[in-house]
Design goal:
The chain is of the alpha+beta class. 37% of the residues lie in helices and 24% in strands. The protein is built from six helices and seven strands; from the N terminus they run H-E-H-H-E-E-E-H-E-H-E-E-H.
């Protein structure tokens, strides 16, 4: 993502549903140990900026943003009524950012036949205070459960940069199947899909390995 986009995200009703669910989850720790709340651009921009300037954040394409630019970007996203962003916590500390969007109204939707119930997802895991084996796997597992169980997605779609090797491995670990590439603004993306069945199978394989 070298050029971030805020238009054409989730319908407003779906966005409101996400806000309600994040409030509910705040007091309900998940099996993975995370809670989730809605993003507050005014108070969270400095934290996100400190994450985005890290070396590993180059694929997020906001390394050159100032704190004010980060705040403005996410304020536009939140105010649009069609965008969803949440901040997850682990042990009381900020852990990762998640964005959710409707591919039918996104650039990605021009590159594959969108189905009803498809949801697009972006995740950015913050720098860990202590390195814990399997931490990012736990984070994306939490997000996938949220999308399927709380937002009733039938399929999750991701479009990472083809050069972002770590995220491809993580995606495959939770059940994503890659199906071609697309030239998006600023990147060549690998398009991958994950149904609930794909996710459940991958989760069972992890537990029985």
């Amino acid at each position: 993502m070298t050029q971030r986009q805020t238009d054409h995200f989730l319908p407003a009703a779906f966005a409101r549903g996400l806000l309600e669910e994040t409030r509910a989850l705040r007091a309900e720790p998940s099996p993975e140990g995370f809670t989730l709340r809605t993003l507050d651009p005014a108070t969270d921009a400095a934290l996100l900026h400190s994450w985005f300037v890290q070396d590993y954040a180059r694929f997020w394409a906001m390394q050159d943003y100032s704190i004010e630019q980060v705040r403005a970007f996410y304020q536009d996203l939140v105010d649009s009524g069609h965008a969803c962003a949440g901040l997850a916590y682990c042990d009381g500390q900020p852990a990762f950012l998640v964005e959710i969007y409707d591919p039918a109204h996104d650039e990605l939707g021009e590159h594959y036949p969108v189905r009803a119930g498809d949801l697009g997802m972006h995740i950015f895991v913050g720098p860990p205070r202590v390195r814990i084996s399997g931490y990012t796997r736990r984070a994306i597992t939490f997000v996938m459960r949220f999308l399927f169980d709380r937002l009733h997605a039938t399929r999750v779609v991701v479009e990472p940069d083809i050069h972002n090797t770590p995220i491809h491995a993580l995606n495959r670990a939770v059940g994503f199947v890659y199906d071609g590439q697309a030239q998006l603004r600023g990147k060549t993306a690998g398009i991958a899909f994950c149904t609930r069945d794909d996710f459940v199978t991958a989760t069972l394989q992890e537990h029985t390995a």
